[in-house]
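Supplementary Methods S3. Input chains for the assembly prediction are listed below.
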Amino acid sequence: MNSASTPAEDLGGPRRRRGLLVRLLEGVGAAVLGVFRAWMGVIEEVGRAAWIGFWGLANAVIPPVRLRLIAQQIEFIGVQSLPIILLASIFTGAVFSLQSYRAFVTFGAQAMVGGTVGVALTRELGPTLTGLLVSGRAGSAIAAELGSMRVTEQIDALEAMAVDPVSYLVKPRLVAAIVAMPMLTAIFDFVGIAGSYVVSVHVLGLTEPEFMVRLADWVDWEDIWTGLFKAFVFGLIMGTVACYKGFYTRGGAKGVGIATTTAVVVSSVAILVANFFIAWALP
Amino acid sequence: MSGSGSASDFVDPVTGQPGAIVYQGVHKAFGDHHVLRGLDLVVPAERITVVIGRSGTGKSVTIKHIMGLLRPDAGHIWVGDDELTTMSDRELRHIRLRFGMVFQHAALFDSMDVFENVAFPLRQHERLREAEVRAKVGALLDAVGLRGAERKIPSELSGGMRKRVGLARALVRDPAYLLYDEPTTGLDPILTAAMDKLIADTQRAHPGLTSLVISHDMHAVLSIADKIVMLVDGRVAHEGTPDWFRQSDDALVRQFLSGSLDGPMKV
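Predicted structure tokens for the full assembly:
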């Protein structure tokens, strides 16, 4: 064995360099693996959420129908959301006509207020704001209720009693969400336009024909159907996300809190993203 | 024997009774965590079997297998004449209809009152007239000492009352097998004794019933069990009658019964 060695080798120089290289590669590997695992986690979450949405809807046509539970949920998601939807729609319509009047009046086009508000409400503001408001009110409650049922073993108890928890808990909420959301949106559209009418005609001084003619000219059935279709999709998103987050809650009271918050955040963001793509895809 | 046959083909060596539920070489792992490591167990028909063991030894996993909530990685499980490992999910759901389960924290539906909680399995699986439902639920609430509490909601009940409602709900469809998951956890000594008595009374009132109890409550184990099974590391370490356990010199048994920190089981 050759005993001649350089001072650098004696000090462990190449070994230290090799160690650095290995650590660098380990770091890069760990980062790549971390990103890969994060993506796998996202894909797994989306897959499980899609499964619960699909199975919940598929169950809608599989007996038992559970009409009473569906009606209860429509009452909770739909009827109990009415006060907030009425208030929000009146003031949305009112403020939109106020701001658009101020812009249009500078070039004498204030007669466009009715049409502008009508199109904006039916195509965009009605379904989107309804989706966001219902996510905040009913989506959070659904996630919290199912989450607390999970952590107190009530969902396990359903399974132990040979009752499919997806059919018993998820289906009624999902069906109610996709039924109630378009109805609430239609109410939002109508009341929002009514609020706009009151402000335009009775506060800003437009004549009734000025407001109504453009409204009738510009808003056609396609705008209304597009908005209602969006509301249907938003109902599906809100119901699926809230049920999924609640159904798979882990970790006691803290887990219920996290499930509730993420249900609202995820469904709100998903509604805004879906809104863009639907608007892009539809004429 | 593998795959075919019936649980009654096995005879329990402790009680001499035919088997009602049988595990043979059952393995179950969650990732790297190997929970059941070749579990062989005969649960005797029409008797109370109590499973003891430290937390994490696979007691809850054992129960979840016979309810079809988990599938074994290897081995066979018989419930009556049915071998579970080859069954579809739908068939497993049917198996659950034969079971009643009393949960550790009762797991009552907090959106329903006591009456509706107990009536729930009947409403889901049987088409009875309302009068029949009332009669059946009323009789069970009588049996568990809760007549008059029908319209209370679970949050208005004490821990002991909730567990008794849970027992009434588990019994309402006359199950062949009754499972108790730590039925006395969280109860004071008096309520614990009352619950133990209720378990023994329930068994006497339903002679065909096979009961499987998971418990840490050694007093109950020794007073109500016909057979005690001690699980250690996912296997049966000891099984015997309460008298055998009382007299055993085995270090594991002595340590568990005395609740001592000194012994073969480390914290």
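The interface with chain A takes residues 67, 69, 93-94, 96-97, 99, 101, 103-105, 107-110, 120-121, 124-125 of chain B (CB under 8 Å). The longest strand of chain B covers residues 19-30.
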